[in-house]
Amino acid sequence: MKISTRFSDAIHLLAFIHIYKGQIPLSSETIAGSIETSPVMVRKLMGELRRAGLIETTHGTPDPKLAKATDDISLLDVYLAIEKEKPLFQIDYKTNPDCIVGGNIQETLKEYYNQAEVAAKAKLNSIKLSDVIDTILVKQKEKDAFKREIEQ
Amino acid sequence: MKISTRFSDAIHLLAFIHIYKGQIPLSSETIAGSIETSPVMVRKLMGELRRAGLIETTHGTPDPKLAKATDDISLLDVYLAIEKEKPLFQIDYKTNPDCIVGGNIQETLKEYYNQAEVAAKAKLNSIKLSDVIDTILVKQKEKDAFKREIEQ
DNA sequence: TTATTTGTAATTTTTGTTATTACATCTATT
DNA sequence: AATAGATGTAATAACAAAAATTACAAATAA
Predict the structure, then answer these.
(1) Counting CB atoms within 10 angstroms of each CB, which of A57, A86, A150, B33 has the fewest?
(2) Is the pTM of this model over 0.85?
(3) Which candidate in A6, A8, A93 is best for mutational testing of the B interface (most B CBs within 10 A)?
(4) pLDDT (tens digit, 9 = 90+) per residue, A85-101?
(5) Residues 35-94 of A with CB under 7 A from strand D
């Protein structure tokens, strides 16, 4: 199949809206240009973020807004908006039920996988969109400073 | 993102070897019957587990052995043997480098994603193959007891 | 030396992801 | 109110990674 970057793209989208709001028109076309994906994909992601209460959009108007402060949106909020109930670690449910291992491995791993998944989610919940945006802006400043340096 | 069922199947394989060792011949055919996959897949997984030092096999002989005690093999050991460097959360590397967001999102998310990944891995490292096997055996005993009950 | 099995490579099949096409619906402007 | 430009969504095609299959050399054990 193909590896999904939807979570990564959704964070990109939110940061983009916050950083470029008021600067350029925020159409799905414009946003898609930054993510380098299709406008349809952007609109689909925005639909999921809207239903999760993270952004507000108006039908027909290219002007999405964040529905909350950037320090009130965690990466877990975004993850859940996009990935929903999808487990982080995939369990093989097609095993031989008549075997001691095949018949009990699912229930067993479900417990242990969940512990690891919760640990990751707790960490995602501690990271806010504001952290991501701050880091992006710092990295950009560093790039600009280095660029000026080698130009002299 | 997301992990295939190979991780799940590898744990299955190790538990199967431990539980059925000496009881039945442990050919890739037999093991594949419990996982409900192909013998070739089993041999591939066994190859990776062998190279990671978790099992010992002999070419031509259907008799794999665990290379360590079951409480000395953690789920993280198995995960790393199978998934190697593969990140738990996928970053979209194809974004517009001329955009502030598109040009810095990868480096930014790499840091934060890694924090979440480490949290999950630390938890996986605390769970041992012995825990998995104990849980499987307890669940089987419970099944057997319940089955006897409704038969009377 | 023969049957069985492992170890691997190469190829095909399967399946989830992304891209594309199409269009109804809404907004804003004239 | 008519038009241009946008969103929201469904349906379909194209694509890419995983799993299954096929094939066979090399090793073991009888």
Answers:
(1) A150
(2) yes
(3) A8
(4) 999 999 998 899 999 99
(5) 39-40, 43-44, 46-47, 50, 57-62
